[in-house]
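Narrative of activities, Objective 1.

The group set out to show that a structural description can be obtained from nothing but a protein's sequence at a throughput compatible with the screening campaign. Below is one input-output pair from the validation batch, recorded exactly as produced.
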Amino acid sequence: MAMEDPDKKTEVVLLACGSFNPITNMHLRLFELAKDYFHETGKYKVIKGIISPVGDAYKKKGLISANHRVTMAKLATKNSDWVEVDDWESSQSEWLETLKVLRYHHQKLLCPDPTNSLQNAIPLTKPGRKRKQEPNRHDPVKKKNQNPDIKSVPQVKLLCGSDMLESFGIPNLWKLEDITEIVENHGLVCISRAGNSVQKFIYESDILWRHKNNIHLVEEWIANDISSTKIRRALRRGQSIRYLVPDVVQAYIEKNNLYSPESEDRNAGVVLAPLQKHASDSKN
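Output recorded for this entry:
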């Protein structure tokens, strides 16, 4: 059998958004599992992974400062030759929808000049105007018309766990048009535990079902139940978190005395930014 031409493979950038409060070995494993999955298809080449911690304006209970969360993520990935941390999202003064972060990174790949990328990301986010200004600017479907020898712009796919995918069903957490654009123009890579009901969730959603070919389900056969919530709980109780987070992250947490009963009460009683925003949007 002839070797596949590596230049014909679709290049993929994996983007993970979330609190990373703190980053754990489970977060890092998501990238490895997704990369293995894509390479095993023989059709894709994963060229980069990006960790984008959410900004403080997200207002999630127990969310410590973005500065610490970004620093820990950078420490955790400093030995990786393909996963990096991007602080654009976390440095915004307002909370940003995940779709805007995907658009920003797609735009950045189109014009790698950092002075361009920020300005170019902004017009795309104007509701209702995107398609007039940029007709299908970031729709991977366009690739089919191009000369097969010309490498197209890499696809930026949203990497997540099954909990994020299933959060699409929580009222007011996501805008329907955002979910549609994410699965239509970018794609999802969802790591789920073997036997998880993610497929049923996709089956029960018309939007997800329509775009199911752009939702890559990756089964995680080596169960990994580490969560940031459990890490914070262990720290509040003075228990060890060794081997659950990278050693450098554990050292940073200890040095800065990061998680405590007090920090867990941050934003207590505050409505989560997307719920606040989408509730007020629906009133207007």
